[in-house]
Amino acid sequence: LRQLVVDAGLPPGLALLPAVESGFEPRARGRLGELGLWQLRPATARRFGLIVNSQRDDRIDLARSTHAAARYLRFLHARYRDWPLALAAYNAGEGRINRALARQPRASFWELAASGHLPRKSRDYVPRFLAVVRLAEHVQACAPRPSAAQVRVAAAPPPSPPARAAHETRTGQSTRRQATPHCDPAFARKPETGIALAAPPGL
User: Fold this and answer.
1) Strand partners, 198
2) What's the Cα-to-Cα distance from 195 to each of 119, 136, 150, 185, 198, rounded to whole Å?
3) Is residue 12 classed as helix, strand or coil in its secondary structure?
4) What is the per-residue DSSP string for 61-129?
5) Beta carbons of 141 and 181 less than 8 angstroms apart
């Protein structure tokens, strides 16, 4: 998802927007007809190129819905020249933001929120998203990940199961998970080479 967002020309942090929109539930439904990871309404989905009918709904397709959401977000950013305002418009609709700006021209999102010209849900939406991004950055920064210099690859002949591979490389389940955080179990199987297992130094 992050790569799709980056490839669409958006800041990578926007890949976390579905955490606020849908909790990353691909078939999440909203009370106003929103559907999917990005909680697009039918009219918005069609406006940005998706097919929504009784036989097909592209909003539940990861790639298609992400491309449509990215086009919508780029449109909103080009219109408001400000990511917090663009996100507020994504949540509340362009009409709400336009009416708020008509009362307070050239105001930032934070000024509109402080003035009470935005609905409470939208006032909370942007800070919630920013909190999710900050939390994700903190988790990523604190996660123990060995550097390339600290990890070697130990090969085990096929068809060794994970437990046997751990025994052969003298490393336990918890140590393997720390050394290979992208796999659980921590191995990548290739039929012609067996198992490639990242092992901590000294093992």
Assistant:
1) 153
2) 55, 31, 19, 11, 10
3) helix
4) -HHHHHHHHHHHHHHHHHHHS-HHHHHHHHHH-HHHHHHHHHHSTT--HHHHHHHT-S-HHHHHHHHHH
5) no
Q: What phi, psi does 199 have (nearest 5°)?
A: -120, 140
What's residue 133's pLDDT? 93
For residue 159, whether the previous peptide bond is cis, meaning omega lies within 30 degrees of 0, is: yes
List, in sequence order, every residue forming a beta bridge with 52; answer none if it has no partner: 57
Indicate the SS3 state at residue 194.
Answer: strand
Q: Under a CB-based contact definition with an 8 Å cutoff, are residues 139 and 105 in contact?
A: no
Q: From residue 4, how far is each of 12, 35, 134 by CA, in Å?
A: 9, 19, 21
Beta bridge partners of 155: 196
pLDDT tens track for 46-65: 999 999 999 999 999 999 99
CA distance 46 to 65: 11
Global pTM reads 0.68
Q: Which amino acid is at 56?
A: R
Task: Quote the CA–CA distance of 129 and 24 in Å, as a whole number.
Answer: 13
Question: Which amino acid is located at 78 in the chain?
Answer: A
Residues pairing with 194 in the sheet: 190
Alpha carbon distance 38, 172 (integer Å) = 40
Active site (catalytic) residues: 21
Type of residue numbered 175? T
pLDDT digits (tens, 9 = 90+) for 15-56: 999 999 999 999 999 999 999 999 999 999 999 999 999 999
